[in-house]
Design a protein that fits this description.
Two copies of one chain form a homodimer. By secondary structure, chain A is of the alpha/beta class. Chain A is built from eleven helices and 15 strands. In chain A, α2 crosses α4 and α4 packs across α11.
Chain lengths: 357, 357
């Protein structure tokens, strides 16, 4: 963990906007940053100690007025160092009605020495990067070794960072993609880094027919609750690894229930309680889960490479803390971002009106 | 409620720092602002409707490493309009070890139409103002009419806004104050607005002897959990109204348990669940509570003016939303604050790397 709190006793806050984040990636290189993030997640989560890292299950407001949406927060603390709170808004009507992304997120970092707000960063790009990197670390641990055929269902923003991050840990020999919206599937090629093999676009029906050829599958859809599954897995190869990243809400799942329930399929939750509530694991009991993400990264699970595995990626607030800290660690020496002083050390802490005199 | 979300579809965020808040108060006048805040709290809370205003009980991280402290958040939503999250750090060693306030707080306002972060404001001053104004609205509703003798235990920052706000709803004829630290008690006069009568400084023993002369009492101490009570109330007059604002933690109470338990004393909680957990009411059952803050402000409770009453003010996140919205409403036409764009509407919402090209 990068220490973001060491020089923060002056109460200043570092703001990182989209342009600052882009400048970090341009300065260090997107591939380099992604490699670093993958290593950092593997390192920090592999050494996860629940007495040193505390998190709260995400909670928030879920509403139907003025229209369906939610605002929720995901808090994590590195004991003795920093508290991170990612606040996420999800408003599915944003793209159509306002030309805005459906997900808007920011991450705040607080110094546990002083309580001061150390940094506030845009977190929509951060979320896509950390979700991709999380899939990469688990793919690296449990997917077939050597070049792979990768299938992707859902070709939106998450697909880009999923494919990109996985390409950093496995050579992607073939890439087969599908989307309910054909134009989204077809535009994917133009959104992927150039080094990645050109995607073969299929219909959902065609996609189900090539499942037997896949080594790794990513599901990254925004299927409505109750409208899954998004793939048929009757012909899944015996070593298929799935990164299922869309499920994050009660009733919202992407995989066939029978497949997830199959005792031969190893379900790897990122956050056990959260996966049981809103992940692919929502049909399972805790005793039916495989090793969790931290256990997978803690030691070698070579045997899983020849088994059917599912990474149930609901999104862990600790991943948000790690990616935000990494951006801050790069931004500071590059002198990127804007420093503001929302607060100031008062001369007399007993005088609330001091600034008025 | 001021509508803070109406013009926010551009994804910009208004930052209000301590100087911006001071400038608002200088422009409109502190007395005017406090009067307006008192009216707004009375109006909004008196019309409180739990289907229109939702709040989450405050929660957070409480730790002993690197030293005792906590970071917690207090969320409230005005349905169809705005979500407010105040994040509060409490680090009692800050003043001695770092010259920083023990409480550092910021409030974030999110638009429930888009999920965007509309405003981020310093909230330490806001907290002192809203806590004072909350005591004022309850004092106005249930304390003796006409000029009053006011007693204050604890002469820190909160005492200033308590006395100031109460002075806007009752003429303070006599002001008797005490503090465990004599110098804090003596410096209070210099921190109060000039129009307020000079405080008579007493020892705790002398203070207990003048209890019989008081009409209204404020307790605003940072007594350690388990170290209360901070006053003896054996000679409390039959109409005494107490604004107890220090209790906000399990075990931390300021008033004698026997007094709070006395069935003739009407305990007015601000947030029932929170008061039962960490307020003066932590020794009571829900059935032993009087009308809550919203019920008090909803209609006339004239009869309570001749009874012993306690306002159990643990701090309501809705108050934080109201005071933050009021500052934003003044700052915008005055062109105060700094507008930043952490996020931007993308040309292609499916392309997370758009800003890199």
């Amino acid at each position: 963990m990068s220490d973001v709190s060491s020089s923060s006793q002056d109460l200043s806050t570092l703001l990182l906007d989209v342009d600052d984040l882009a400048a970090v990636l341009e300065n260090v290189g997107v591939d380099f940053f992604l490699d670093e993030l993958i290593r950092q997640l593997a390192f920090d989560i592999g050494r996860f100690d629940p007495t040193a890292i505390e998190h709260k299950i995400r909670t928030g407001f879920n509403y139907d007025t003025p229209e369906h949406g939610l605002i929720e927060w995901m808090p994590t603390m590195v004991v003795g160092d920093v508290v991170s709170v990612k606040t996420v808004g999800y408003h599915p009507q944003n793209p159509v009605e306002r030309g805005l992304p459906s997900v808007l997120a920011t991450t705040s970092l607080y110094d546990t020495n002083t309580g001061g707000l150390v940094a506030l960063t845009e977190a929509t790009l951060l979320t896509a990067l950390r979700t991709g990197a999380a899939s990469a670390v688990i793919t690296q641990a449990v997917a077939k070794e050597g070049p792979i055929t990768l299938g992707v269902v859902g070709c939106g923003a998450q697909a880009v960072t999923q494919i990109h991050a996985i390409s950093r840990v496995r050579k992607i020999e073939r890439l087969i993609v599908t989307d309910v919206d054909q134009s989204t599937a077809e535009s994917l090629a133009g959104r992927l880094p150039e080094a990645i093999v050109a995607p073969e676009v299929t219909t959902h029906t065609e996609f189900d027919e090539v499942i037997a050829d896949l080594d790794v599958l990513v599901t990254a859809t925004s299927v409505e609750p109750g409208h899954g599954p998004v793939v048929t897995l009757d012909h899944a190869p015996e070593h298929l690894h799935i990164n299922a990243i869309g499920a994050d809400f009660p009733g919202k799942t992407e995989l066939p229930e029978s497949y997830v329930r199959n005792p031969d399929v190893v379900v790897i939750p990122d956050v056990i309680e959260q996966c049981l509530a809103e992940g692919e694991a929502q049909h399972l009991n805790a005793s039916e889960l495989g090793p969790d993400m931290a256990e997978i990264l803690e030691r070698d699970w070579h045997a899983l490479r020849s088994q059917q595995t599912i990474f149930d990626s609901t999104g862990w607030s600790y991943e948000d803390l790690i990616v935000a800290s990494l951006f801050v660690a790069h931004a500071v020496p590059l002198e990127l971002g804007t420093v503001v002083e929302l607060q100031r050390a008062p001369t007399d802490p007993h005088d609330p009106y001091e600034t008025l005199r």
